[in-house]
Design brief:
Blueprint lengths: L1 H24 L22 E3 L7 E6 L11 E8 L8 E6 L3 E5 H10 L13 E12 L9 E3 L3 E7 L15 E3 L17 E3 L2 E11 L6 E5 L8 E5 L2 E4 H4 L6 E2 L5 E8 L4 E6 L11 E4 L1 H4 L9 E2 L1 E2 L6 E9 L2 E7 L7 E3 L5 E3 L1 E2 L4 E3 L2 E8 L4 E6 L2
């Protein structure tokens, strides 16, 4: 009998000990609110000019660093805008898992209206004022109540609504330029750096076909603005990345297959890039290429005389004009002052993929930097306003 009781006691203690060990083996993570607030990392303009004509354009791209909640977890970011500093009626501008979000002119116009701003001279409402922005970081992707979160300080942007009745402002587009010793500019970020051609149907997609220097030490990156190293784009562990997301500079592209012609395509939204060889051997060589058309003079006289472009000494298939005044109208690119030699055009303004004998290119009044590539017919008209 005593032996049976002893066995029962031993079994009881074994079960208790097993449960205690099992409970100890269950590791529980507790997320904590970060001690430091999340903060914006991009620079802001002193003033943002807004108009209905540019409503669909991107006005600003907000960037921030990832906060540390103390555990590995997905984070959802919410970018809020407000007409007042207290965020009495905040407007959710973007929700994303990325460390950046772009807002459009239309979103700023909506906030400006809520702030009582307008550009109507018949009213006493101001046309200039401040709008307010913050970013919130929340644990997970379901936005559960009582989830740990951190909130940035409020950032103020000054906006001005352009008065109606004046000339329509030209749209503002993103650009990408080459820098690096595989390119014409070398490692100088303000040396007439060649631009990539922006897809007229998708402002996040760019392409370029041309000459690159090759070798183990010949490299290049992409910058968004000449004269500024940030933001810059390159390769990081084989992926196309930007310094604004990495928090540091990405690595360069390398031309490992030797000097020659290549086609580069990049997508800044989906972070995709490709670099493939291009056979230039059978391409035509031209003594001169000019821009011609009503848009060069504002009259039909523009169709009678080319404005010659400068041929690149680095790549003879690349042509440019550093500054030219254009008028409302149409233009084309023409080789050697002769329609029968070659001419290129397309139906998209500011950038496009021209074809031989293609349609006239629409032009709007303004001062531009113009680039043309006779290998592809691609062109860029970059506003200098």
């Amino acid at each position: 009998m005593n032996k049976n009781i002893l066995k029962l006691i031993m079994v009881f203690f074994a079960i208790v000990a097993f449960n205690a060990c099992s409970e100890d083996d269950e590791i529980q993570f507790t997320a904590q609110t970060p001690p430091d607030q999340i903060s914006f990392t991009n620079d802001f303009l002193g003033e943002y000019l807004l108009s209905e004509q540019t409503a669909q354009n991107n006005a600003e791209r907000f960037t921030w660093e990832s906060p540390d909640f103390g555990i590995p977890t997905p984070i959802t970011y919410q970018l809020d805008g407000s007409a007042d500093f207290e965020f009495t009626a905040p407007e959710l501008l973007a929700e994303t898992s990325n460390l950046q979000a772009s807002i459009t002119v239309a979103q700023l116009l909506s906030l400006a209206e809520a702030a009582g701003l307008d550009n109507d001279e018949a009213t006493e409402n101001p046309d200039t004022g401040d709008l307010y922005f913050r970013v919130r970081a929340l644990i997970g992707s379901e936005n559960a109540e009582n989830s740990p979160e951190t909130l940035s300080e409020v950032t103020t942007l000054t906006v001005t609504l352009i008065a109606t009745g004046g000339p329509e402002p030209l749209p503002v587009f993103p650009n990408l330029y080459f820098v690096g010793n595989a390119t014409a500019a070398d490692w100088n970020n303000d040396n007439n750096n060649f631009p990539l051609v922006r897809d007229p149907e998708n402002e996040n997609v760019f392409t370029y076909t041309g000459k690159f220097l090759g070798g183990d030490t010949n490299e290049f990156k992409l910058i968004e603005n000449r004269g500024a190293w940030q933001p810059q784009w390159g390769l990081q562990d084989g992926s196309f990345e930007t310094s604004e997301d990495l928090g540091g500079d990405p690595g360069p592209f390398q031309i490992t297959d030797g000097e020659g012609y290549y086609t580069l395509e990049v997508d800044t939204e989906n972070k995709i890039s490709s670099l493939v060889a291009f056979d230039e051997a059978s391409s035509e060589a031209y003594a001169s290429i000019g821009i011609i058309g009503f848009g060069t003079t504002g009259s039909d006289e523009g169709w009678s005389q080319d404005i010659n472009m400068t041929q690149s000494t680095f790549d003879p298939h690349v042509w440019y004009i550093s500054e030219i005044e254009l008028f409302d109208g149409e233009v084309k690119f023409r080789a050697e002052d002769d329609w029968d030699v070659a001419n290129w055009g397309s139906n998209t303004e500011f950038s496009g993929f021209g074809s031989l004998g293609g349609p006239n290119i629409p032009s709007s009044a303004g001062t531009y930097e113009v680039w043309f590539n006779d290998l592809t017919g691609n062109y860029m008209l970059i506003s200098l306003q």
